[in-house]
Design a protein that fits this description.
The chain is an alpha+beta fold and 379 residues long. Helices cover 34% and strands 16% of the residues.
């Protein structure tokens, strides 16, 4: 039976006085004062007085002052997609210092914490040691119903600095290249970039997956990496950012008109880089850990210079090279280009600029496309 039914039974038996009160209390596992308390509450209020009452104290002398609690609520309303940790940093900038747990309790009390806000932290994180060693790039899915495409995001792996956040009309390689040119001019050229197996940087119909955009990036000296198929956690940082962007769009409201939409994205990019504290950075901002790359963009890069003494061959019009009396398929997309060969025992690694694209097995007479996926998941 539930607590109320048990108390009703006790009151009934106690009212009959058929056995000693002490023995009755012992039978129900309660003390004599508790037994008299139940009898008194029943006499005052009837069965309703036997219901379980709230144990919350009537007074909370240590509860946060109304003014400070109002400041927490106002901060949450201004940034409805921010959690307690980020709000604590924001309030501290305004001279209001509150523990993260206190802010979280205030949000819970005010009903400002939903299921979407309850996230488990990543079990393990990996990141590059310095800015611009690796940029992650991906297209966001539609931000709202009726859209076919979300914005293009380019994120620095080390600092989480948002290099670009642009709403494009399509995923055509020419548009992406134009936007990347702007990023390279303003931020320099990264050492490497990480993308998924998607258009326009990867093409199933393109020779060895190398699209025009991919070749353009390689000629800029950018080493390309591709995430493993059905492993979005490899691009964990840009995927997590897309989740934050989606929550911000839903809770703050997203303009429909294209010009206003891009203006909203520019403002959000500035907020992400310069204002919003980042938990993985010790609540610092991405801009505080980022600096432009020293590798400058060249719109007409000279022919790639391989190391002195390197074994270099030219790919013929059929996408092949001749080595050891045998013609090896490299890539039709690289017809007329020079590649570097690095022999290790019976295997030969084929590099185009800084990117490894082929492995030749001399003993088996086999030419294999190199899986350019990153070995580690770098969420």
């Amino acid at each position: 039976m539930d607590v109320k039914d048990q108390r009703v039974r006790f009151v009934v038996l106690a009212s009959r006085a058929e056995r000693p009160f002490s023995a009755l209390c012992a039978e129900f596992g309660i003390s004599r004062p508790t037994g008299y308390l139940w009898l008194g509450r029943y006499r005052q209020r009837g069965v309703a007085g036997l219901c379980e009452l709230s144990r919350r104290p009537q007074l909370s002398p240590q509860q946060t002052e109304p003014q400070r609690e109002a400041a927490v609520v106002a901060a949450r309303m201004s940034f409805p997609d921010w959690g307690a940790r980020k709000l604590a940093v924001l309030l501290a900038r305004r001279g209001i210092h509150l523990p993260v747990t206190t802010i979280h309790r205030i949000l819970l009390r005010r009903g400002l914490v939903g299921e979407a806000d309850r996230q488990r932290p990543a079990a393990e994180r990996f990141e590059r040691a310095a800015p611009n060693q690796l940029w992650q790039m991906d297209f966001k899915g539609p931000l709202c119903k009726g859209e076919a495409l979300g914005p293009l995001s380019v994120l620095d792996d080390h600092s989480r600095y948002l290099v670009a956040l642009e709403q494009l009309d399509s995923i055509r390689g020419e548009l992406v290249r134009e936007r990347l040119q702007q990023a390279f001019i303003g931020c320099g050229v990264p050492e490497a970039m990480l993308m998924d197996h998607g258009t326009p940087w990867w093409g199933r119909q393109a020779p060895q997956g190398l699209t025009r955009l991919a070749l353009w990036l390689i000629r800029q000296g950018v080493e390309l990496h591709f995430s493993r198929v059905r492993h979005p956690q490899t691009q964990g940082k840009v995927e997590r950012f897309h989740g934050e962007l989606q929550r911000a769009a839903e809770r703050r409201g997203l303009p429909v008109e294209p010009v206003a939409r891009q203006s909203w994205l520019h403002e959000y990019r500035w907020e992400h880089n310069h204002f919003r504290p980042h938990q993985a950075l010790g609540m610092a901002t991405p801009a505080s850990r980022w600096q432009p790359s020293t590798r400058r963009y060249d719109p007409r890069p000279a022919e790639w210079q391989y190391p002195e003494g390197a074994h270099v061959l030219k790919v013929d019009a059929e996408g092949k090279i001749k080595l050891g009396g045998h013609h090896w398929t490299i890539s039709l997309a690289l017809a007329g280009e020079r590649v570097q060969l690095e022999q290790i025992h019976e295997r030969v690694l084929v590099f185009y600029c800084r990117t490894l694209i082929r492995e030749l097995d001399l003993s088996r007479q086999r030419s294999t496309i190199v899986d350019r996926c990153l070995d580690a998941e770098i969420s």
